[in-house]
Design goal:
By secondary structure, this protein is mostly helical. It is built from 7 helices and no strands. The protein starts with a helix and ends with a helix.
């Protein structure tokens, strides 16, 4: 029995419980459709066999009916021949009686064949109806499967997008951009720190010169001496 047939035989709550436990609904649905198609193939094979029996029974019915008619016609011809003197009356009666008995047997065969024809015709009708329902079920399941696959693709894509937007996925683009922003800000802070360090004096002499604004007492004295020498000349 296929998956869908089993589901149909269960109550709604039990069927829902089974569906909830399916690890992969798409694969299970595909397998269910395969089972239904196997059932369809078996039903078609059975239909062909029943149709063959129906055809044979109809042939038997036709043959038996024809025999019954032939034996009746022979009995009539025998009696007519006896009336015309072509055969002895006693012999004609005997042979006509035999012909009528054979007719009776043929009629019984025809009746039996008719019963079989009616039975097989009903079987064919029932099988055709079942096959029609089975084909409809397969078509419906295939349509549902296509819808299920489309919904699964949309659901997977939506889930991926939502994970990226929510930051749940550490490898998402949004998360990587946040990390890059943090890294750039850190690098900018380090650059400012190095620049600040570069502007600070590296020795005590540098600190003194920076405090004096770039001039030193020694250089000032030398300048005054040079000016005095020029005035004396």
């Amino acid at each position: 029995m296929g998956l869908f047939k089993r589901l149909v035989t269960l109550g709604k709550s039990e069927a829902n419980a089974i569906v909830d436990k399916l690890e992969d609904p798409i694969k299970m649905t595909e397998q269910g459709i395969k089972d239904l198609k196997k059932d369809l193939d078996a039903s078609l094979k059975g239909l062909a066999e029943v149709k063959a029996l129906a055809i044979r029974s109809k042939r038997d019915l036709s043959t038996a009916t024809e025999k019954a008619n032939n034996y009746e016609q022979k009995a009539i011809l025998l009696l007519k021949k006896a009336e015309s003197g072509g055969i002895a009356v006693e012999e004609a009666d005997r042979l006509a009686t035999e012909a009528l008995q054979l007719k009776e047997q043929a009629m019984k065969d025809a009746a039996r064949a008719k019963t079989e024809v009616d039975k097989f015709d009903q079987n064919v009708a029932n099988l055709n109806e079942g096959i029609s329902r089975l084909r409809s079920s397969i078509s419906s399941c295939e349509n549902e499967l296509r819808t299920l696959k489309a919904r699964a693709r949309v659901s997977a894509a939506t889930q991926k997008i939502n994970k990226q937007l929510s930051g749940i996925d550490s490898s998402s683009t949004v998360t990587m951009l946040e990390r890059m922003k943090e890294k750039v800000e850190q690098q900018e802070a380090m650059s400012e720190a190095y620049a600040d360090i570069a502007g600070q004096p590296t020795s005590i002499d540098s600190e003194i010169d920076k405090a004096l604004g770039g001039s030193t007492p020694a250089s000032s004295s030398a300048l005054e001496a040079l000016k005095a020498k020029l005035n004396q000349s």
